[in-house]
Amino acid sequence: MEKRTSAVARFVAALALVGAVLVVVVIVGAAMDDDSSPQEQRTERPAKKQKQQQPKAETYTIETGDTLTSIAQETGVSVSRILELNPEVDPQILVAGETLKLR
């Protein structure tokens, strides 16, 4: 009879463990739903479309530390367009004082 009681006790212990895990999951889930901060209460606005910048100048004089990416961001002209307009420029070696065409 001892084996029978042992098997029943193991089964009941397993059920208790599963029940306890379910209770913890439900409590944590409810706590997270009720814990609404002001950030969550705000409605999200759709992202504004970024306006493409028009080149302000027709040329750009390279300064120390400039990269084609930084020039493109500053002027609103894409890197590929800068390279297209300035085929003689090596994108890896920009020389300070050199002038790039933007239009």
Strand and helix map with partners:
Blueprint: H1 2-34, H2 38-41, E1 59-61, H3 68-75, H4 79-85, E2 99-101
Distance between the termini: 95 Å
| Main sheet record | 2 strands, antiparallel
Rg, rounded, reads: 33 Å
> Which overall shape is indicated by the principal axes computed on the Cα atoms?
rod-shaped
Full CATH superfamily name of the largest domain: LysM domain
CATH topology of the largest domain: Membrane-bound Lytic Murein Transglycosylase D, Chain A
The second-level CATH architecture of the largest domain is Roll
What is the name of the CATH class of the largest domain?
Alpha Beta
Please give the oligomerization state of what you see.
Answer: single chain
Helices and strands, in order, run as HHEHHE
Work out the count of structural domains.
Answer: 2
Helix content: 40-55%
Write down how many β-strands occur, each being a DSSP E stretch of 2 or more residues: 2
Contiguous helical run count: 4
Offer a concise description of the structure.
The chain has 103 residues and is mainly α. The chain is built from four helices and two strands.
Structure description:
This protein is mainly alpha-helical. The protein folds into two domains: 2-41; 59-101, LysM domain (Membrane-bound Lytic Murein Transglycosylase D, Chain A), CATH 3.10.350.10. The chain has helices at residues 2-34, 38-41, 68-75, 79-85, and strands spanning 59-61, 99-101. Strands 1-2 form a two-stranded antiparallel sheet.
